[in-house]
TrEMBL record:
4Fe-4S Mo/W bis-MGD-type domain segment(s): 3-64
PROSITE patterns cross-referenced by the UniProt entry: 4FE4S_MOW_BIS_MGD (PS51669)
Gene Ontology BP, a term: cellular respiration
Keywords: 4Fe-4S, Iron, Iron-sulfur, Metal-binding, Oxidoreductase
Protein name: Putative oxidoreductase
């Protein structure tokens, strides 16, 4: 049997680590995966991989994976041909829109959409034909504040400065755990070695988190912060920089810093200390240490984005970097120059051009906050959502108040899902349209090259042949578009295959036909280990897309939110606040059906400080009930000194044992869904992003 070694990147998380995959040709003409290892010749990941990459073969071989279109008939799923399925989708959606208006059909796109370039290039080829304003995605349970702040300050929602982790002398991380996430809106494979290298060159790593996370455990300093109160800490830091004259001049033209200083003057370190739970002197010393470093990075991720003041947090993080001169500076935060430049090729985005029908939540970039999805289905009246298209998403486990969303999905007239599994969400669909598996199609990372800590590029060839009768995801959207256009009389524009689109993007980009690199897909195919295009460098001044051509430090939108922050009450004594947590073997809800990723020590428990257990008469390992405004779950509790007193932590993405789910291994796992407790009414009121951290809960014996 012939053995072949293939090289491509893992696309299961943002780190895009290089892989070496050995296969063996079989007598029937198929290929069998023999091994998946890190690619030592990949200059970016340097041979590093995490356990998820090895599980790519489990996805490929999973007997639960849907491999042909299925139509639901009661509690059964029956095979259906592609053309018949496309025609049925077109007929049902066109009929619903004709009777109830375009907005009666909603769309939800999940996190895996950005991990698969066929979805990025072609999903809107069909979804755009629906002309619906009822569009939602995982962005508003994850990262919307990042995009909104970049759009407001820099003129483009994707123009996000990335930590220059390989050259910085001081890294302050708030609400991020890159040792578990492999980086997030910071594409950084091999992050542990990079952080150790920072410390080895005399730098300092400081982590702010209500839990002593894996990253906090290796930090030089860890500070506990009250959930939902990171903005208070950040205000105290920024005020100290202003008060003590610790700023550094920037080469960028910045508009509005004086207005910022005046507006936040009341939010001193002393005033903020009782809110965030960190002593004022510690806040001031952290500001001094940050400003004194030759170069420094303030980076905040999920923990600060998914809270009531997520947008303020991301704004303050940018301001701290700006005031200390660390924006667009080596060792600070820098913008990538990707080979396919989405910033140059797209508009900057728009905000609040329309609002959701029921709660009046603002759109961003044509999408409404997903916290409003269920109420748009459940609330009758003109514009009520009556049909849903989901793409690579599981919002029942991923969005706030999942039980409410279950009730909403159960009442839809029609639902279609482009997905590989019958999961907690797709079990409500009338049709499931499965694309090819990850190793059966090619891939190019348009998104994560944009957020990488180095300028890198790679084209990933398919490792395994497409099975007979299977369609790639982009081909599914082309088929849906053709059927819908034929049904509605729309004239459909021609399209190209994804690799042809990428080729055009490469040739038009900064390393394309006008450069010495002459990048194209053909050239990248000659470099299966990928190409390193150099370290990040200052470029923001020439890439700003604000109307003024300057960095806008004081957007009226953000200044207008200060009053809401000032009025927020401090949590009551004895109140428990819920936060999430990540694990390197998980990725949201979609990596739990593979034995190698769920084996080992259980990690589904509710973590709680021993003092909080004792105060409630509870013991380690006991079954407890956790209640919030929206629901109740039962789960095992685990005592942990890594928790801040008054804070409990439950991992996101579990709770698979629900009727109709056809994921055998996942359904056998213990644990409950954190989003059966999170509250669709608890939001970052500015952006509409879900506030999944800082949820008030009660914990009692089960």
């Amino acid at each position: 049997m012939t053995k072949t070694l293939h090289h491509r990147a893992c696309h299961l998380c943002e780190a895009i680590c290089g892989l070496s995959i050995e296969t063996e040709d079989q007598a029937d003409g198929s290929r069998r995966i023999l091994s998946i290892k890190g690619d030592a010749q990949d200059s970016f990941s340097r041979g590093h991989i995490c356990p998820k990459a090895v599980a790519l073969q489990d996805i490929q071989n999973d007997p639960d994976r849907v491999r042909q279109p299925l139509r639901r008939a009661g509690n059964e799923w029956l095979p259906i041909g592609w053309d018949e399925a496309f025609a049925l989708v077109a007929e049902r959606l066109a009929d619903i829109q004709a009777r109830h208006g375009n907005n009666a059909v909603a769309v939800y796109q999940g996190n895996p959409s950005v991990h698969n370039y066929g979805l990025m290039t072609h999903s809107n080829y069909f979804l755009g034909l629906l002309k619906t304003r009822s569009r939602f995605s995982a962005t508003s349970v994850d990262q919307l504040p990042h995009h909104l702040i970049s759009q407001q300050m820099y003129g483009h929602g994707l123009l996000i400065p990335i930590p220059d982790i390989d050259h910085t002398g001081f890294m302050l991380i708030l609400g991020g755990n890159p040792l578990a996430s492999n980086g997030s809106i910071m594409t950084v494979p091999d992050v542990e070695k990079r952080l150790k290298a920072l410390q080895a060159r005399g730098g300092k790593l400081v982590v702010v988190d209500p839990r002593r996370s894996e990253t906090a455990a290796m930090a030089d300093q860890h500070l506990f912060v009250r959930p939902g109160q990171d903005a208070a800490l950040l205000f105290g830091l920024l005020n100290t920089l202003f008060e003590e004259g610790l700023g550094r001049t920037s080469h960028l033209e910045i508009e509005g810093l004086a207005r910022v200083r005046e507006a936040i003057a009341p939010f001193t370190a002393e005033a903020m200390a009782p809110r965030c739970g960190i002593p004022a002197e510690d806040i001031r010393q952290l500001a001094r240490d940050f400003a004194a470093a030759d170069s420094a990075v303030c980076y905040g991720r999920m923990g600060v984005s998914t809270q009531a003041f997520g947008s303020l947090c991301q704004w303050l993080i940018q301001l701290i970097n700006l005031v200390t001169g660390n924006v667009d500076r080596v060792g600070g935060v820098l913008c990538t120059e990707p080979a396919v430049d989405l910033v140059a090729a797209t508009s900057g985005g728009h905000f609040n051009r329309w609002q959701s029908r029921v709660s009046g939540l603002p759109e961003y970039g044509g999408e409404l906050p997903v916290a409003a999805l269920a109420e748009e289905m459940l609330t009758s009246g003109e514009g009520q959502v009556r049909a849903l298209v989901t793409v690579a998403g599981n919002p029942v486990l991923s969005t706030p108040n999942g039980r409410q969303l279950e009730r909403a999905l159960d009442g839809l007239e029609f639902m279609v899902s482009v997905d590989l599994y019958i999961n907690e969400t797709t079990r409500y669909a009338d049709l499931i349209l499965p694309p090819t598996a990850p190793l059966e199609h090619d891939h190019y990372d348009t998104t994560f090259n944009l957020f990488a800590v180095r300028n890198v590029t790679r084209f990933n060839e398919a490792v395994l042949a497409r099975p007979e009768g299977a369609l790639h995801d982009w081909e599914i959207f082309v088929g849906l578009a053709k059927a819908f256009a034929a049904k509605t009389g729309i004239e459909l524009k021609p399209t190209l295959a994804p690799d042809q689109m990428i080729d055009l993007g490469l040739r038009a980009g900064p390393y394309g036909d006008r450069s010495t690199h002459k990048l194209s897909v053909a050239r990248l195919r000659e470099h299966p280990h990928g190409l390193d295009l150099g370290a990040l460098k200052a470029n923001l001044g020439g890439r700003l897309k604000t109307a003024s051509g300057k960095v806008e430090a004081a957007p009226a939108l953000l200044l207008g939110d200060l009053e809401r922050f000032a009025a927020q009450p401090v949590p009551g004594e004895g109140e428990l606040m819920l936060i999430g947590r990540r694990h390197v073997r998980s990725n949201n809800s979609w990596m739990h059906n593979y034995h190698r990723l769920v084996k080992g020590k259980p990690r589904h428990q509710l973590l709680m400080h021993p003092r909080d257990l004792e105060a409630r008469g509870l013991v380690d390992g006991q079954r407890v009930r956790v209640r919030s405004r929206v629901g109740m779950i039962e789960v095992e509790v685990g005592a942990s000194d890594d928790m801040m007193p008054g804070v409990v932590s439950l991992p996101h993405g579990w709770g698979h044992a629900r009727p109709g789910v056809r994921m055998g291994i996942a359904s056998e796992q213990p644990g409950a869904s954190a989003n059966d407790l999170t509250d669709e009414r608890q939001l970052d009121a500015l952006s509409g992003n879900a506030a999944l951290n800082g949820v008030p809960v009660e914990v009692v014996a089960a």
